[in-house]
Design a protein that fits this description.
This protein is an alpha/beta fold and 320 residues long. It has one domain: TIM Barrel (Alpha-Beta Barrel), CATH 3.20.20.100. It is globular, with a radius of gyration of 19 Å. Strands 3-4-5-8-9-10-11-12 form an 8-stranded parallel β-barrel, surrounded by 4 helices. It has helices at residues 32-44, 61-70, 99-113, 132-145, 158-165, 188-193, 234-254, 258-267, 282-289, 298-311; strands at residues 3-4, 11-12, 15-18, 49-51, 78-83, 85-87, 93-95, 120-123, 151-154, 172-174, 198-201, 272-278.
Length: 320
């Protein structure tokens, strides 16, 4: 089951590999050997869509690894990257939406990827100090040059997308979305669905929680960035584990893993084009790839919906 990016003819798999973890910025125990094998496993498992960004790594490690692992398959894969965010010399994240900075970062991304064109280029986040239309003009210039086949936005509100679209057509948006974080169903999804815009959602596995591999008594490594999120703490953690117990029972009954039923549920939601599944080990992305190629039946969906209603919405998606 292939999908297309917006109204283009570019075909992508409904499961994509999210390449933030291999950057090693917040994920622990990351190394190039495992990252290269994970990228290769993704391709061998049927995934053709790889999502990265200029700022995935202090010096573009994610883009460089994609080049090393997949350059031989370049004509068979689709690459999405983003610009507009970088790290300064002190390791502090900086948002810069000035047209000249956007064009500079994109040129560097192409060099790292060793390619002349990407299938999808996102504005990673709007810059509060730069009018949206000014940033959009840079993306329109890149689109017209042919170096990006389609343009997308990430971390944009609907009103900001409306502004951006007056200057540059939008083919894809990238919000977070999963079984327990469904805010986009209110305004964003209806807006994009009427315009033929793809939704490439991140956090389908809720930063690993919905993969089903974290036991109730799991102790996070002090270096693990997930410790700062409310969803991994206290009462929220216990409620999430109760929810996971219900999903485990459903998964066992249909002989799938928890992450596979979560991913399958996600990619078949109305308006969702692809789910970005992060991984830093080959087994992780192979399991995620197993979430496509089949479909939950009506009874299974009813059981999942009942579990979601019982859990209720999570307190917050933001770090503390």
């Amino acid at each position: 089951m292939m999908q297309t990016i917006g109204n283009s003819s570019i075909e992508i798999t409904p499961v994509a590999m999210g390449c933030w973890p291999i950057a090693g910025m917040t994920s622990i125990d990351v190394n190039d050997e495992d990252s290269l094998r994970t990228l290769q496993e993704a391709y061998q498992s049927g995934i053709n869509f790889f999502d990265t960004a200029y700022c995935y790594g202090a010096n573009g490690q994610s883009e460089k690894l994609i080049c090393r692992a997949l350059s031989r398959y370049r004509d068979q894969i689709a690459i999405a990257t983003k610009c507009g965010i970088h790290w300064n010399e002190q390791g502090v994240r900086q948002i810069n939406g000035r047209p000249e900075k956007i064009k500079q970062e994109f040129s560097e991304s192409l060099q790292r990827l060793q390619t002349g064109v990407v299938e999808l280029l996102y504005h990673h986040a709007p810059d509060p100090d730069v009018p949206v239309v000014e940033s959009a003009a840079a993306f329109r210039e890149i689109l017209d040059s042919g170096r990006a086949k389609t343009i997308g936005v990430s971390n944009y509100s609907v009103s900001q997308m409306n502004e951006f679209a007056t200057v540059c057509p939008i083919s894809a948006v990238q919000p977070h979305y999963n079984m327990l974080q469904r805010e986009i169903e209110g305004e964003l999804l209806p807006w994009v669905q009427t315009r033929g815009i793809s939704v490439m959602c991140y956090w389908p596995l809720m930063k690993g929680l919905l993969a089903g591999h974290l036991p109730r008594d799991h102790q996070f490594d002090p270096r693990d960035g997930r410790r700062k999120y409310p969803m991994f703490q206290g009462e929220e953690w216990q409620k999430n584990q109760d929810f996971m117990d219900e999903l485990r029972a459903i998964a066992l009954d249909i002989e799938k893993t928890v992450s596979q039923i979560v991913i399958n549920w996600t990619i078949h939601r109305p308006g969702i084009t692809s789910a970005l599944c992060g991984a830093k080990r080959p087994a992780q992305i192979k399991e995620s790839a197993g979430g496509m190629g089949w479909k939950l039946d009506a009874q299974q969906l009813q059981s999942i919906d009942a579990a979601i209603r019982s859990r209720g919405p999570i307190v917050s998606a933001s770090a503390v």
